[in-house]
Design goal:
alpha+beta; Alpha-Beta Plaits; 9-stranded mixed beta sheet; globular
């Protein structure tokens, strides 16, 4: 199986800790779920699945405090159903009424190298050879093409990306090791109506975080 590598960077990033209920506080390092989302933004089909294996930190971990305006409400499901059934309803939010100002602790000036495997589902509808899917990703990544703009945790923090053909000749990771604590691995969508988060104990060794397999013993609900 051929692993793939991307270099992603941006001015700001926020990989939100789920235990923070009000203010946004980022993990120290990019999460596997955020890395997966970058790969999927470039290439995704129902027949494929991305498995993130390693996250490398290329720049020192720096923080910034920002205060932002956010919308504190969502569209009413009842109003949407009324409009669908009767052809009339209120399908709008007044930003002035729902605006909330919140502080956040974000990362700034970030850069990562993310490694992932491209798994091809054996029971896929399109039984094209795996080489077809791999060639499609390589072509899109090398050309800088994406389905939607990759982002670093929050959609407003757009990510720049570059396909890395040979990670061995790239810049080294930061020379820092630390225990990152329990980190979000990804969401379990086995039950589409009630997705459950899964966590793992993340350790950064010389700037690199090895991500355990989804089915590994290290994963905790």
């Amino acid at each position: 199986m051929k692993p793939y590598c991307l270099e992603v960077s941006g001015d700001f990033a926020c990989f939100t800790r789920p235990e923070m209920k009000v203010e946004r506080v980022s993990y120290d390092v990019m999460t596997p779920s955020a890395a997966r989302a970058v790969f999927e933004a470039i290439f995704w089909k129902p027949a494929v699945r991305w498995r993130v294996r390693r996250i490398e930190v290329l720049k020192p971990i720096r923080w910034i405090n920002l205060r932002r305006n956010e919308v504190g409400a969502v569209m009413s499901v009842r109003n949407v159903q009324t409009a669908m059934n009767g052809g009339d309803g209120v399908l709008a939010l007044n930003i002035e009424d729902e605006r909330q100002q919140r502080a956040g602790l974000f990362l700034r000036d970030v850069s990562y190298r993310i490694h992932a495997d491209l798994d091809i589902e054996p029971d896929r509808v399109d039984q094209s050879p795996p080489a077809k899917y791999r060639a499609m990703f390589e072509r899109r990544a090398e050309a800088g093409q994406c389905v939607n703009q990759p982002y670093l945790g929050c959609r407003e923090f757009a990510a720049r990306f570059r396909y890395v053909a040979d990670p061995a000749v790239e810049a080294p990771t930061i020379a820092e090791s630390r225990d990152l604590g329990w980190m979000l691995h990804d969401l379990d969508f086995a039950n589409p109506t009630d997705s459950q988060p899964r966590f793992f104990r993340a350790q950064m060794a010389n700037g690199a975080v090895n991500v355990p397999a989804w089915e590994g013993e290290e994963i905790r609900r």
